[in-house]
Design a protein that fits this description.
single chain, 348 residues, alpha+beta, 7-stranded antiparallel beta sheet, 3-stranded antiparallel beta sheet, 10 strands, globular
Length: 348
């Protein structure tokens, strides 16, 4: 059983990461900061459709400030969706602002609603943390998913990642008769492999979502991480493998009953090859990010020592033992992947 760190250390954004964010248009001047939302006057709990407490609270601001706050939040949404073009945004309004007092980033969740048809969307305002930003960027570069976010000072805004929360999916959907069982099992194997390759930890069931897309002849599944705070943070190798988390046991058993070991290895090889190809396409951006990550501190020294030792043993590769930072460990991990898929890099 994995033992997650009880309290993750908050790591500030240093100059080298800030330079990367500017170079790749991730740093923007935002109309509102996290601190502006943090002085609400009152709150009420948010319940789901079954009446269960979601651990989120809807917050309320002083009437004299509310209009200004809502206007600025609408402008933030325009930055995420239309690069700041507010024309045609007059029909949008802030329906509510929710706050989650738990978790590392203590996020605010903003619901934007179209007043003509009541359609709504979400985005998040959080405390910026270097670990999370590295996680978002690595996801953007190495996964099949593109992410929209922006940083200003100590504030980060993130677009909503749509999907069914993993714990809800396991509870309510895993035994659905219309489920394409093989496709779902394949996707979990690939998600497990993606997490291990890029060293994203803490993928418990409530830290990812399942995105279901009807196709012309069947249903496609995509499992997407939604929490990136544990990027290159934990020391135990198993923390980077979703299969070892207790609340993922039902879907792990589901996969084991459907896929034989050789099929699982095939899907793992496929995913590693796809990641190698993404590295090839985005090699310069990834190098710039890796250069910043290698000199940054995003994990305590004891966790760095443990992870490099466990990976050296796992891969039977002593080069991990020369690593001094989590960034160096990740680079070594990716070098191994590239070496084993070097035929992809030779295709110019």
């Amino acid at each position: 059983m994995n033992e997650i760190s009880k309290k993750k250390i908050h790591y500030p954004i240093k100059d080298h990461l800030r330079k990367y964010l500017r170079n790749y248009s991730r740093e923007l001047k935002l109309p509102i900061a996290y601190a502006d939302l943090d002085h609400y006057e009152s709150s009420i709990p948010v319940y789901d459709k079954q009446g269960k407490d979601t651990l989120w609270e809807t917050v309320f601001y002083n009437q004299s400030e509310m209009e200004e706050i809502h206007d600025k939040l609408t402008r933030v949404y325009a930055l995420l969706k239309t690069e700041g073009d507010i024309q045609g945004m007059e029909h949008l309004f802030v329906d509510r602002v929710d706050y989650c007092p738990f978790g590392n980033s203590k996020p605010f969740r903003v619901r934007i609603t179209n007043k003509y048809n009541d359609n709504y969307d979400y985005f998040y305002v959080k405390k910026a943390d270097a670990s999370r930003i590295y996680g978002l960027e690595i996801e953007h570069i190495l996964s099949p998913n593109r992410l929209s976010y922006a940083v200003d000072g100590t504030t980060i805004i993130e677009d909503h990642i749509a999907g069914i929360p993993g714990d809800v999916f396991i509870k309510d959907w895993l035994n659905d008769e219309q489920l394409n069982r093989i496709r779902l099992a394949k996707e979990f194997v690939k998600f497990n492999e993606r997490s291990f390759v890029r060293l994203l930890g803490d993928m418990r069931s409530y830290n990812y979502v399942v995105d279901i897309t009807p196709d012309f002849d069947d249903i496609q599944y995509r499992i997407r991480a939604i929490d990136f705070d544990q990027q290159c943070y934990e020391g135990a190798k198993t923390m980077y493998l979703p299969q070892f988390f207790k609340d993922n046991n039902p879907i792990v058993e589901f996969c084991s009953n459907l896929l034989n070991p050789e099929t699982i290895r095939q899907y793992q090889r496929e995913e590693r090859a796809m990641i190698a190809n993404r590295i090839k396409v985005s090699r310069y951006r990834l190098k710039d990010l890796s250069d910043a990550l290698e000199i940054d501190e995003i994990s305590p020294p004891d966790k760095v020592e443990r992870l490099k030792s466990e990976l050296a043993e796992h891969f039977q590769d002593p080069s991990f033992l020369d690593c001094e930072t989590m960034g160096e460990i990740l680079r070594t991990r990716l070098f191994i992947l590239l070496y084993n898929n070097k035929d992809i890099l030779d295709q110019e």
